[in-house]
């Protein structure tokens, strides 16, 4: 197979309304070939999507996770894991739900660090709040996104970034919560996550460099 032949197979596949098993196999072979030739993980995402749309969830997840582990942040793993976690909650499988919520959070944090889209921040809020519906917040293991939960009531949280201490403080204002981060006040916790920065760098892009979280009340 050549790159041109692989591209032709893929183009023909996307024009099909109801691909056969053989056509899906040819598509998968072409996608795998292009990934091997180029190292572009978008081909893994495309494969995962194809399997997921065919209700072949385990195969889809394998390709999504491989792409995510190789640094591709466009995979829909957070959405898939969050949806499945809700299914586990309804089945009274608490620990399974928590495992998926933790995985969803990990992959989503990577995606937000690259591009803090409003919808992704909303999904992160949903994941965090669902997590703490199932277990208590451990103040010794907090990270940036735990502030969705911690700052839902008036509270001060301190943490360090590159050796410097910072503080986020929430307060009631009208019908909602405002957040003051160091010397800047934000109208909502959503604004805080969208706009708060240290030395011009968004907190969401620095989340791996934020340590020593402490609830100061």
Flag low-confidence runs.
none
The average pLDDT score comes to: 93
Helix content: 40-55%
Structural class: alpha+beta
Cα-atom radius of gyration: 21 Å
**Termini separation (Å)?**
64 Å
Total count of domains: 3
Q: In DSSP terms, counting alpha (H) and pi (I) runs of 4 or more, how many helices?
A: 9
Sheet with the most strands: spatial strand order: 4-3-2-1-7
Largest sheet: 5 strands, antiparallel
- Run of helices and strands: HHHHHHHHEEEEHEEE
Secondary-structure topology with pairs:
Blueprint: H1 3-14, H2 21-38, H3 42-53, H4 57-69, H5 77-90, H6 94-114, H7 118-134, H8 147-150, E1 155-161, E2 164-173, E3 176-181, E4 184-186, H9 189-195, E5 197-198, E6 201-202, E7 210-215
Antiparallel strand pairs: 1-2, 1-7, 2-3, 3-4, 5-6
Helix pairs in contact: 1-2, 2-3, 3-4, 5-6, 6-7
Which characteristics define this entry?
217 residues; alpha+beta; Serine Threonine Protein Phosphatase 5, Tetratricopeptide repeat; five-stranded antiparallel beta sheet
How would you describe what is shown here?
The chain has 217 residues and is an alpha+beta fold. The protein has three domains: 3-69, Alpha Horseshoe (Serine Threonine Protein Phosphatase 5, Tetratricopeptide repeat), CATH 1.25.40; 77-134, no CATH class; 139-215, no CATH class. It is built from nine helices and seven strands. The protein has helices at residues 3-14, 21-38, 42-53, 57-69, 77-90, 94-114, 118-134, 147-150, 189-195, and strands at residues 155-161, 164-173, 176-181, 184-186, 197-198, 201-202, 210-215. The chain has a five-stranded antiparallel sheet, with helices on one face. A two-stranded antiparallel sheet has the order 5-6. Strand 1 and strand 2 (164-173) form a beta hairpin. Helix 3 (42-53) packs antiparallel against helix 4. The longest helix is centred in the middle third of the chain and has 21 residues, at 94-114. 28% of the residues are buried. The model has no long low-confidence stretch (mean pLDDT 93).
């Amino acid at each position: 197979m050549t790159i041109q032949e692989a591209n032709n197979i893929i183009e023909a596949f996307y024009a099909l309304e109801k691909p056969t098993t053989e056509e899906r196999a040819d598509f998968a072979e072409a996608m795998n070939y292009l990934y091997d030739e180029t190292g572009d993980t978008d081909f893994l995402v495309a494969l995962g999507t194809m399997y997921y749309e065919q209700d072949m969830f385990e195969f889809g997840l394998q390709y999504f996770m491989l792409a995510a582990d190789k640094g591709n942040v466009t995979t829909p793993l957070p959405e898939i894991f969050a949806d499945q976690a809700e299914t586990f909650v309804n089945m009274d499988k608490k620990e399974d739900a928590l495992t998926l919520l933790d995985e969803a959070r990990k992959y989503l944090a990577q995606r937000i660090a690259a591009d803090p889209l409003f919808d992704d921040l909303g999904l992160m809020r949903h994941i965090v709040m669902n997590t703490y519906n199932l277990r208590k917040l451990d103040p010794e293991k907090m990270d940036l996104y735990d502030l969705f939960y911690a700052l839902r009531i008036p509270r001060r949280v301190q943490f360090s970034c590159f050796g410097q201490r910072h503080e986020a403080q929430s307060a009631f204002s009208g019908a909602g919560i405002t957040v003051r981060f160091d010397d800047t006040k934000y109208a909502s916790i959503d604004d805080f996550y969208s706009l708060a920065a240290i030395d011009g760098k968004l907190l969401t892009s620095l989340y791996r460099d934020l340590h020593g979280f402490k609830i100061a009340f």
